[in-house]
Structure formats: C-alpha cells, structure tokens
Amino acid sequence: MDAHQAVRNVDGAMPETPFARPEGSLLVMVGLPGTGKSMIVERLIEFIPAAVIGTDTVRRYMRQFPTYTAAEMMFVYQVCHQVIERRLNRGQRVIFDGTNHAAARRQQLFEIARKHNAPLAVCQVQASEAVIRQRLMTRKSGDRRDGDMSDAGWSVYQWMVSAQEPIVHDHLILDTTNSPADQLAHRLGEYWLGIEQEAGGDGPAANGQESSKF
Fold it and tell me: Which of 8, 107, 150, 175 is deepest in the core (most CB within 10 A)?
C-alpha cells in the first residue's frame, strides 16, 4: 500500500467530527509507551469532540503485526501527518496521539500547524518507570483495556527512553502515576481551549454552544 492510498483509507475510516474553526486546531500528545496518553485522549474527546489520529491505530491498520522498525515508523508518521492536514483543512479539532519523542517529528507538526494557521497545543504525558513497566507487562499478558491498540512492550520503551529528545516548545506536563485520567483530561481540555482563546477567532465551544472568542 502506498502512502496516498493509506492516507485515503485511514481518513475515510475515521469518523467525521464537528467543525471547530476555519483553520482547525491541533493538539500534539508526547509520551513514551505506557505513560497513559491514550487513556487521557479517550476521556478528553468525551467533552471536546476531535478527530483522533493515533500512530498505534494507523500502524495496526496497515500491518497486522507491527515491527517498530525505523522504516515502518517513518511511513506511519508520514501517513498520520497527511491525515492531520486533511482534517485541519475541514476546520476540525485534531489530536495526534503518538510518542512524538523525536524533535524533528515534532517540528514537522509545528510547521503543519503554522501552515494552516491552526492553534497548537502540546501535552507531554509521563509516569513513574515502575508504573509504566507494570502497564506494559499487563499489556503483554493480554489483559489490556478496551481501546488499547499499542503493541509496544518494555523493550520498545527502553529503546525510546534513550532516543527521546526534550521539548522546547511551550507545553503542558501531565503525570498519570497517581492522578486519574478523567481529572487530567479536564486539565488538558482547559489548556487546549485556552490556547485557542489566545489565538482568537470565532468558533463553536466544546459543548456545542456558540462562543464569541476561542
């Protein structure tokens, strides 16, 4: 499957979400496997409708047994970035749920947001190593929560720990070690909507009501 076909297939398989603002809005999640990014995103979209583009979902869609090779990761991110652009063009809020541990890949996302003049929010999710290890071991045993599409295990986490690069862009840090996902999702929602308010412009509010400034 080439990239163009993959982009059409992934975009077409995703549900449409409400119009938010003409230029769209982008939330970039950053965090290693097992930190709890997807748990927060699942709670967030319960009150802020958004198109969720996840590397795990795209990877599984294109390959039944992911390999996490450099070539595969490059292709997955390429497809994700193009789907993000499609959704921003439709004026949707977009959440990119991936590790985004490399500065170069984050820079590509920043440039996409700048190209579309879309408000950009960045959230880094972390947890203690002990909690992450337990989550990944539980996943490996087959006892995974509904919606968990990742196949990344402890070895993938250990490799990414040494490969991750610091975020220099303004961002929110959330720690899932002891805090429930619901609470963290509301903090993230407030942060994202605050970024949109600073950007200005008219658009529907998260609860579907009209807002004069977002």
Answer: 150
